[in-house]
Amino acid sequence: MPGLSAILTEWRQLLREDQKIGMSLLRPTDLRATSYPCPRPGGMGCPRRVIDQGRDGIVAVCGDEDGSNCDDMSLQPVDIVIYELHRRELAIRAAKALGIKPEFGLMDGLRETFRVGDFHPIAGKRFPVYLLLALDDAQRMNAVSHLCRTTTVPFILLAPTSRSIPNHAMELLRERQARFCPLADLMIADEHDRITSSPAAREVMAEFRAIVLPEPAPGEPMVRFPTPFDAFWSDLRICVLDGHRVTLTCKGVSETVNFSTMGMENKRSREPSVQWNLLLAFARHHGKITWKASEATQKIPQQVRRLNIDLERFFGISGHPVIWKADEKAYCTAFEILQESDKPARVSPGRRRPSR
Fold first, then answer.
1. pTM for the whole structure
2. Strands lying side by side in the sheet with 236-240
3. Tens of pLDDT along 148-158?
4. Of 71, 72, 168, 257, which is the most buried if we count CB atoms within 10 A?
């Protein structure tokens, strides 16, 4: 269908029993049809021409020489309004089916190719989702080639059906660890004829997550903390258990790790690095180190920069976790950090804590 647009009569013929659902994905344009479908298409002069007779109304006229194939048909202005597929609405519903935030956008230089949004499994990790509605194999192949060439991370590509992507394009997608998923598998109709996500949509995202964020093998250290994608440094809490271990908590996610897991190990001695010792110092000083502290040597600006690099890499949160506050004349953490001994002791039920 050129332009993915047609008058309502043609849309109804194509959608058949899916009219109620399909019509919710259409929108009217400013264009008006110059032809109208014939009851016996394919004959001479087909389809019928639309003639605006002014005050006498609008009529669809058979183009056959003797005019015997189809009778003239009186039309209303709404009958010749051209409706197009509402691409933004389709992309938004696809994003919701995948459980991602819709971020609709056109892809420059590509026909009928759109940005749907990003999959954010954890902080610092973004994998784009695209929608391809191109009409022929050449356009589709060009779009797939361009996306595989310019997208530096794995991505998800959506298209109407399993027949939408040529076989040679599928090979390119597999090489880039990209996942193709037909919209027909993602979205289904509920009992009220509304579009909703299918169970397959959840499976797609679970499989894609396993590809881009594989779980470490038993015994292998974590490579990074599974920070929620919408987390800020202020959501993070670090509790120092001892000289080698800390408990990390961020928006309901909690892990106990050691200095090696956090990438703060001296490669030669296998002992904690300078950055780890500085992190412990921040815990001792409740997240604030002034120039009066014994740890505040001339090297501390460089040590803070390196600590920021290690923390940003491990947690994937944007912005610096440790900053210099001129008004306080101190380096301060943007997260909460404390020692286990600083936590208030738990009081057993039925017993009161002694008063001081």
1. 0.70
2. 253-258, 245-250, 236-240, 336-339
3. 999 989 999 99
4. 257
